[in-house]
Amino acid sequence: MSRRLGVEADGGSRGNPGVAGYGAVVRDLQTGDLLAERAAPLGKASNNVAEYSGLIAGLEAVLEIEPGADVEVRMDSKLVVEQMAGRWKIKHADMRRLAIEARELATRIEQAGGSVDYAWIPRADNAVADALSNDGMDGETVRRDHWRTSGSVGAQADSSDSPPAEPAVVEVAEQVVLSTDESPASPPDAGKPARILLVRHGVTAFTEQGRLDGRGGADPSLSERGVAQAKRAAQGVAERVAGVDGVHVVTSSLARAKETGGAVADALGVRTTVDADWDEQAFGHWDGMSMRDLVTAFPEQLQQMRVEDDFSVEGGESHGQLAERVVAAFERAVELAGPGGTVVVATHRKPIMVVLQHVLGLTTERSWRLAAAPASLTGVEVWADGVMSVAFTNDTHHHGDA
Question: Of 62, 151, 144, 142, which Cα lies nearest the Cα of 107?
């Protein structure tokens, strides 16, 4: 029977991109022994590049310890886990290069008789790798091979620049990692969920005319009707979060979302935070065109946009690229909310579709069947064990007959 090893990996960037570093540990899953620790600075890099670098360092350590082990990689990056599992496409060149390197390492493990599986874990369960990644961002290089001095594999220390192994006391709690492909009801001991309340912006002149308006486009403000919608949506949010302390309001960087989020923040007595990863999809040279024009002029390309993750208009953004940034923003919102907390996000139709697609495991084509009316509310709940559920969608009751 192959030895069972666990890799916990993480990476971070102060600025994204900014000063970056990674961290990784390898554990014996049968004994709980800490076998190896890794950390290093990366200079200026993105958060995702740092996370992939941590994964690579962990797999390289496995190949030193036991090349034919059955390995479970545990990371709090949903993006890396889904991409390495082959469920999400990789568009960015740097990430694609690192993913290929990681897959080559995994292939070497498999050729030696082992296996590599990937599982998402909450950030709280990835604290050791997270701390090591912060060491990396602080400029430290860490290479501790406890397995060499513990006699667990019988090897001798051979790294002259490695500090002496530090005795470690490791508490290992039994953990059940639920597959993100399933959506079972959360067990009663999972605590309170983080609540993400998605608010689509009110209408603009572009919305009223049926014209596309994405990231990098004209960026119109709310129309008079849109301002009224935003105020009603704000009251709807206030009703839903009444009695909840510490509610955060996040908006995209586009004017209509910032204005809608501002109305919500005013109703709650808080300030807004801008996260541009919640921006609408960039539609390139289609920006400003009406759907009627697109159906007439570009029927095949319009269909491609609805079904193909890697299709993009010239100067625009593919659905896959949109999903990468929106899911990353969603994960940050969940972390900001914390168990029992709430984050309200003022955003756009396509990002709301992406979140629901992510939570429900839908194909891109099917995600287009989800409605998100202007100034509507959609609620998602995320438990600490990774279980996610959609509480409600496209709630417009606050508008009454308006």
Answer: 62
Which residue in the list 201, 248, 348, 398 is annotated as catalytic? 201
Q: In this structure, how many other beta carbons lie within 10 angstroms of the beta carbon of residue 294? A: 18
pLDDT (0 to 100) of residue 190:
57
Q: Which two tokens stand for residue 117?
A: 């599986």
| CA atoms of 110 and 112, how far apart (whole Å) | 5
pTM for the whole structure: 0.56
Is the torsion defined by CA of 55, 59, 60, 65 positive or negative?
Answer: positive
Q: Catalytic residue among 280, 324, 331, 381, which? A: 280
Please confirm, yes or no, whether 280 is among the known catalytic residues.
yes
**In whole angstroms, what is the distance from residue 157 CA to residue 6 CA?**
21
CA 189 to chain centre: 24
Instruction: For residue 163, name the pLDDT band (cuts at 50, 70, 90).
Output: very low
Distance between CA atoms of residues 257 and 230, nearest Å: 9
Sheet holding 248-251, edge to edge: 272-274, 248-251, 342-347, 194-200, 377-382, 388-395
Which pLDDT value is given to residue 1?
A: 67
Residue 379 has which token pair?
A: 């609620």
Residue 85, pLDDT > 50, answer yes
- 182's CB contacts (< 8 A; 6+ apart) are none
Q: Among this protein's residues, is 358 annotated catalytic? A: no
Q: Which tens digits make up the pLDDT trace of 187-232?
A: 444 578 999 999 999 999 999 999 999 999 999 999 999 999 999 9
Average pLDDT over residues 87-94: 80
- At 157, the pLDDT band (50, 70, 90 cuts) reads very low
> Can you say how many angstroms the Cα of residue 73 is from the centroid of all Cα atoms in its chain?
17
